[in-house]
Design goal:
Blueprint: E1 3-4, H1 7-25, E2 30-36, H2 40-56, E3 59-65, H3 71-83, E4 89-92, H4 102-106, H5 120-127, H6 136-147, E5 156-160, H7 167-176, E6 180-184, H8 191-196, E7 200-203, E8 220-224, E9 228-229, E10 235-236, H9 241-244, E11 248-251, H10 258-276
Parallel strand pairs: 1-11, 2-3, 2-4, 5-6, 5-7, 7-8, 8-11
Antiparallel strand pairs: 9-10
Helix pairs in contact: 1-10, 2-10, 6-7, 6-10
C-alpha cells in the first residue's frame, strides 16, 4: 500500500517553524523579488512568494519591470539590491524576456544573498558537502524524504533531468546522503531499465506523465518535481500518478507535493541569509 507524501501539510508545518525563527532572530528580514515582463506563470509564482513572505514575517520588496526593460536597467536594479542592507535575499524570477541575458543579471547577486542557491559558489559548496544556501526545490525534496523517515544510505537513487536548478543539485544532495546516484537525461540509453533500478526515483524532466508504471520498481519511492498540463489542460506532474501509485511505497502528488516545499525552502534560505549577514 502506497503513502502520499503531503508537501502542502509539511510546508505549512515548516512555515510555522520559520515564522518563529524569524521572530526570535529580532531582525527585519527582507526578500527582494525582481520580475521582468508579463509571463503569466511567473506572475503567479511571484504572487505566491510574496504571500509566503507575509505568512512567515519576512518583508517582501517586489520590483516589476516592463517587458521592454533594458539589460542595463535590470542589472542596475540588482546591483542596488546587492548593496541594500534591508535586503537579505534577492530572487530574480526566471525566465526573463529573450533580449535579457539572465546569466549576467544573476551574476550581480552576491553569494550570501543568493537565496535560490544557484550561484557557482553555493553549488560548489554543495558539491563539497559544505554548509551553503541550497537550491530550494531539491532541498524541499530532501525535507519531504526526511519527514517520512525514508532511508537513503546505500539506496539506488535515479534523477531524471539534469538542469542546474533541480537535477544537478538534487543528485548532489542525494550523494551527500550516501545514496548511489544515477542522473538521466535525453541521451540516456535504455532509460526505462535505469529507472527500474531505482529505490528512489526523482522525476524532473518537464514532460507530462512521462514516467509510467512500467518504469517503476515495486516498492519504490517516487518524487514528482514536474509541473505540467495534461491533454485536458489539467495540472499534472512528470509522473503518471494514477497508474504509478500502486507500485510505490511513497509518492508525491502534483499539485500539493514539491511545489509548496520549494517556496517554503526559499523562506528558510532568506532567514538563513539574514542571520548569517
Amino acid at each position: 500500500m502506497y503513502k502520499v507524501i503531503d508537501g502542502k501539510a509539511l510546508a505549512a508545518k515548516m512555515r510555522e517553524d520559520i515564522k518563529q525563527k524569524v521572530q526570535a532572530s529580532g531582525k527585519n528580514i527582507g526578500l527582494a523579488v525582481v520580475l521582468v515582463g508579463d509571463d503569466p506563470a511567473s506572475q503567479v509564482y511571484v504572487r505566491n512568494k510574496i504571500k509566503a513572505c507575509g505568512e512567515v514575517g519576512i518583508k517582501s520588496y517586489a520590483y516589476r519591470l516592463d517587458k521592454d526593460a533594458t539589460q542595463a536597467s535590470v542589472e542596475e536594479l540588482v546591483k542596488s539590491l546587492a548593496e541594500d542592507n534591508n535586503v537579505h535575499g534577492i530572487l530574480v524570477q526566471l525566465p526573463m524576456p529573450p533580449h535579457i541575458d539572465s546569466k549576467k543579471v544573476l551574476s550581480h547577486i552576491p553569494c550570501k544573498k543568493d537565496v535560490d542557491g544557484f550561484c557557482a559558489e553555493n553549488i560548489g559548496k554543495l558539491c563539497m558537502n559544505e554548509d551553503c544556501l541550497v537550491a530550494c526545490t531539491p532541498n524541499g525534496v530532501m525535507q519531504m524524504l526526511a519527514s517520512e523517515g525514508i532511508e537513503l544510505k546505500g539506496k539506488n537513487a535515479v534523477v531524471v533531468g539534469r538542469s542546474n536548478i533541480v537535477g544537478k543539485p538534487m543528485a548532489m544532495l542525494l550523494t551527500n546522503a550516501d545514496a548511489t546516484v544515477t542522473v538521466c537525461h535525453s541521451k540516456t540509453a535504455d532509460l526505462k531499465q535505469v529507472c527500474l533500478n531505482a529505490d528512489v526515483l526523482v522525476a524532473a524532466i518537464g514532460k507530462a506523465k512521462f514516467i509510467t508504471a512500467d518504469m517503476v520498481k515495486e516498492g519504490a519511492v517516487v518524487i514528482d518535481v514536474g509541473m505540467d498540463r495534461d491533454e485536458n489542460g489539467k495540472l499534472c506532474g512528470d509522473v503518471d500518478f494514477e497508474n504509478v501509485k500502486e507500485k510505490c511505497s511513497y509518492i508525491s502528488p502534483v499539485p500539493g507535493g514539491v511545489g509548496p516545499m520549494t517556496i517554503t525552502m526559499l523562506m528558510y534560505n532568506t532567514y538563513l541569509a539574514a542571520v548569517r549577514s
